[in-house]
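Obj: model holo form, ligand = zinc ion.
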Amino acid sequence: MWAPSLPNKVDPWRLAAESGRLNGALTLATLPRLAAVLNRADGVANVALLAGVDQRGVRFIEGTVRTEVELICQRCLGVLRLPLEAVVSLGLARNEAEADRLPEEYEPLLVAEGVIGVADLVEDELLLALPLIPRHEDARDCQADGYRTPAGGEHDPPSATWASLLRDFPRSH
Ligand SMILES: [Zn+2]
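Output (holo structure tokens):
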């Protein structure tokens, strides 16, 4: 599969100053924190980000990361393939005080100086875009996987495990 290449690392401040772009693809298998919560880490994340300085002087990185992930449905425990789109809107901040002053449409990206890993950035965004409780949208798809509504209503929710998994992944920067 052809894919434009992404740099391994980038200086976000410089990228913003130069109105740079990050376009390319990353295989999901190279994103270990994401791969750990996927049923199967096949596929590719398509990254389309651009950086710049907005009218208020805020340095930003925005765009989308799109992929398809394979999860386990928390209702029927069958395989669930889900298109995933992370809408990225990051405002650069050198410290907490700057982060607090960012306009609210931006998620702060704390970077004092130097470079950040592009894969880490993409992985964070995809982790945030994952559904809290992955489930087939249509319960009939669950029945197709052999799911029957539990008779006594007793159903140990595997979603609790899932949620705690996600909580263990704070943003890494
Ligand atoms: Zn299901």
